[in-house]
Amino acid sequence: xxxxxxxxxxxxxxxxxxxxxxxxxxxxxxxxxxxxxxxxxxxxxxxxxxxxxxxxxxxxxxxxxxxxxxxxxxxxxxxxxxxxxxxxxxxxxxxxxxxxxxxxxxxxxxxxxxxxxxxxxxxxxxxxxxxxxxxxxxxxxxxxxxxxxxxxxxxxxxxxxxxxxxxxxxxxxxxxxxxxxxxxxxxxxxxxxxxxxxxxxxxxxxxxxxxxxxxxxxxxxxxxxxxxxxxxxxxxxxxxxxxxxxxxxxxxxxxxxxxxxxxxxxxxxxxxxxxxxxxxxxxxxxxxxxxxxxxxxxxx
Amino acid sequence: xxxxxxxxxxxxxxxxxxxxxxxxxxxxxxxxxxxxxxxxxxxxxxxxxxxxxxxxxxxxxxxxxxxxxxxxxxxxxxxxxxxxxxxxxxxxxxxxxxxxxxxx
Lengths: 300, 104
Prior knowledge:
The complex is a heterodimer.
Chain A lengths: L2 H5 L8 H8 L6 E3 L9 H5 L10 E8 L2 E8 L10 H17 L3 E6 L9 H20 L4 E5 L8 H8 L2 E5 L9 H8 L9 H8 L1 H6 L5 E3 L3 H13 L8 H18 L5 H7 L13 H9 L4
Parallel strand pairs in A: 3-4, 4-5, 5-6, 6-7
Antiparallel strand pairs in A: 1-2, 2-3
Helix pairs in contact in A: 4-5, 5-6
Chain B lengths: L1 E8 L10 E3 L7 E7 L5 E8 L5 H14 L5 E7 L4 H15 L5
Parallel strand pairs in B: 4-5
Antiparallel strand pairs in B: 1-4, 2-3, 3-5
């Protein structure tokens, strides 16, 4: 028997509340607008759909290694973690409060396909308000750390939000992209992208690929304590320049270089070969530690 | 969506903690919120469910729960996304245990 399986607390399979319970210091979780005080989405009720008391997101105060922390956790099992009006307002409210109260960090446990289409414009506005609020928190000196490892990944508007955060911690199971696989297949055809090819989906959007590309600060195991350790490590020596134009231009240049280098490739395997990985086909089977070692040995 | 309301006689619940939440409104699942109610010897249940036409089944499952557990003095709110009776029974027992202060 593999001991790691018995003692593992999978992030992927946990609910939003279970993730928070394992992430924060025991007893420090203090929810804002708990289910008994919140109300389900009126938009979903109008469409004759049952809502959730917390509208699919938990916002709270807490501590991590005794540092004051704010946290946001999306529930991927409820409507794909999609952002509706109340869901978005809870997130924006917490981020604005972070600007005033300056916690050590805001942890953003993203598990979402993006905008909740049932709420149309209200959902779109909510996403754009979240983007603004993330940048405002960072400008106020509060790091916003995205944690991506849920079944819905971070897609659509929430993919953009993830990239606006100060840093991203991801697991192999996590995924990060703009248009989701099914969306690409629907719009551009199965020849362009086969959403049923799960291995391909992970080679293009999955945690290992994102980490190899430098999109994520850390790759961690699919384990709640591993995410906790990852956050603690990241915050221990945290330093971030205030977001500015020069930094944005540099990021833009990195993206343009990436486009020029890889735009014609159709699979992560080709990109990894171009990165200088001798045996790209071995990457999907590497464990987390081996992959991190592999990345550290790559030419920069 | 269908909204259902029930009231069952039930023995008063022994110990009362904060409002308790259990489960997630996901496919084949449901969330249950238990709050303190006004009638010590009755359990009131309000359900919003995506599956129409299962009122009799809810009545039977909840009736059996209220008879088998001391759940008097509670108000139970349920958001359901097509959970089976077995899942409903499990979640009700979990939620009540949490309401009585037994952390999961």
